[in-house]
Design a protein that fits this description.
This protein is 23% helix and 32% strand. The chain is α+β, with helices and mostly antiparallel strands. The protein has two domains: 2-80 and 224-258, no CATH class; 86-220, no CATH class. A three-stranded antiparallel beta sheet has the order 8-7-11, with no helix packed on it. It has a three-stranded antiparallel beta sheet with strand order 12-13-14, with no helix packed on it. A two-stranded antiparallel sheet has the order 1-4. A hairpin with a 5-residue loop joins β7 (103-106) and β8. α1 packs antiparallel against α2 (226-258). The two termini are 19 Å apart. The relative contact order is 0.21.
Length: 261
């Protein structure tokens, strides 16, 4: 009975964490560039009461054994980097990546971070920054008398200034690709940093080397599907209730044993 209680308790803990992951997904259903997470589980070690293949008293080999599992544990929260739906903003500095790739952001510490959130602005010096004022990498500066900004699908940025008819190129937006984006470390603020698991970034021009293309005046929204998350939440709640009933049943069986005369 104690094994049953321990296994069921581990199941309740696992479902609690899965609920927390689902809650985080739903909380960010309107967050630009957010990528949903899902919890992954593994069964725990087994207690071998009889090993498969054991030779019996009469010399016969037992085809199966007796193994009792110890429960479940959470091994990962996997982030899914599928594309989210695009939302039109008509803001000339809003950009969405259609396909693979991350915008690069220079943190105040000098470290590079990566994001799918393409909502950019201008600071007081005309530099392109994200919503927290962190600079885009490579840096872009827009002249003060600019009347229009154009970003091509391959990342070329050009402007038209007052009194000019022809556009002037001021720079290019590049993207970072990772061999294992799921290995990136989320640090909040819609930002990720590289890890040993993600590998080093490959800096590419949009539309080349499997990188996605840019769409100006659009934002990539969260890839969270509310209906799917609600179904997962219901399933998680039922699994939690079932594990609690196992603990209750094991307790009642122990009570019966304790009351034996």
């Amino acid at each position: 009975m104690l094994r049953a209680m321990d296994a069921a308790a581990s199941g309740m803990q696992a479902q609690e964490l899965r609920t927390e992951v689902i809650a985080h997904n739903l909380a960010n259903v309107s967050t630009s560039g957010f990528k949903r997470e899902r919890a992954e589980f593994q069964d725990l070690l087994y207690e071998n009461l009889k090993t498969p293949g054991t030779v019996g008293a009469q010399g016969n080999q037992q085809p199966v054994g007796i193994q009792v599992g110890q429960g479940v544990r959470t091994v990962a929260t996997l982030r899914e980097f599928s594309d989210g739906p695009l939302q039109r903003t008509d803001n000339s500095l809003d950009m969405a990546v259609e396909g693979q790739g991350f915008f690069q952001i220079r943190l105040p510490s000098g470290e590079l971070a990566y994001t799918r959130d393409g909502s950019f602005k201008l600071d007081s010096q005309g530099r392109v920054v994200n919503s927290d004022g962190y600079l885009m990498e490579p840096p872009l500066s827009v002249p003060q008398n600019t009347t229009s900004i154009t970003v091509s699908n391959d990342g070329n940025v050009s402007v038209i200034t007052a009194g000019q008819q022809q556009p002037t190129e001021i720079g290019r937006v590049t993207l970072a690709n990772f061999i294992n984006p799921a290995g990136l470390n989320a640090i909040g603020r819609n930002l990720f940093t590289q890890t040993a698991a993600s590998g080093d970034p490959l800096i590419v021009t949009p539309g080349t080397e499997a990188a996605g293309t840019l769409t100006q005046g659009m934002l990539e929204m969260s890839n969270v599907e509310v209906v799917d998350e609600m179904v997962n939440l219901i399933a998680t709640q039922r699994a939690y209730e079932t594990n609690s009933k196992v603990i209750q049943a094991a307790d009642e069986m122990l009570q019966v044993t304790a009351n034996l005369r």
